[in-house]
Amino acid sequence: MKKIVIISGTPGTGKTTIAKILSKALNGKLIDINQKVVENQFYTLDSERETKIADIQKLEKHLVKLIQEINSEYIIVEGHYADILPDELVYRAIILRTHPEILRDRLEQKKYSRTKISENLQAEILGVCSSHAYESYEAHKVYEINTSKMSIDKTINILISIIKNDKSNYHLEKIDWLGDLEKNNLLNKYFD
């Protein structure tokens, strides 16, 4: 039986790196959603926000067909809008989360514009990717992982434990950047 694992999160949380290593560790197949959007031209351009807007309907049909054709026990689907797959196909939905201060540094290193950095930091603080996952999938399938200070090796080990249903190596946590920042009077720094 195929086990489809979604790796999602705000840009800069480590999705691409983690998904590549995880797919190799599980001897699985990796589907990079952003790559599929671009190579199949499933997008329109938003010049104001300097980004591509994916055609979700075309993308979902393409992904479902692609998944049906793949002969692998583990299929890792990576992208920040990976929550478009139907619930019945998804085995685990893993959302990578990163503290806004660390995420800001990562996005600046990637040379994101100020507007794009602000938009992504706000999305991370509000937990947009997690919210979408919880809306799309049964709660027991969704896991949030704080990658802020965690090594790649430790992250991979935790993910493998979650995927193989060995919960002894991972303590579930609810990540609440909004509450933390509000408690420390730091929200103004991100929302002006």
Describe this protein's structure.
A 5-stranded parallel beta sheet has the order 2-5-1-6-7, with helices on both faces. Helix 4 packs antiparallel against helix 5. The chain contains 8 helices and 7 strands; from the N terminus they run E-H-E-H-E-E-H-E-E-H-H-H-E-H-H. The model has no long low-confidence stretch (mean pLDDT 92). It is globular and about 50 Å long. With 192 residues, it is of the alpha/beta class. The longest helix is centred in the first third of the chain and has 14 residues.
Shape: globular
Rounded average pLDDT: 92
Q: Estimate what percentage of residues fall within beta strands.
A: 15-25%
Using only C-alpha atoms, the radius of gyration works out to 16 Å
Task: Please count the helical segments.
Answer: 8
Sheet/helix structural class: alpha/beta
Low-confidence stretches: none
The strands making up the biggest β-sheet line up spatially as 2-5-1-6-7
- Mind describing the biggest β-sheet? 5 strands, parallel
How much helical structure, as a percent, in the residues? 40-55%
> How would you spell out the order of helices and strands?
EHEHEEHEEHHHEHH
> How many strand segments?
7
Termini gap: 48 Å
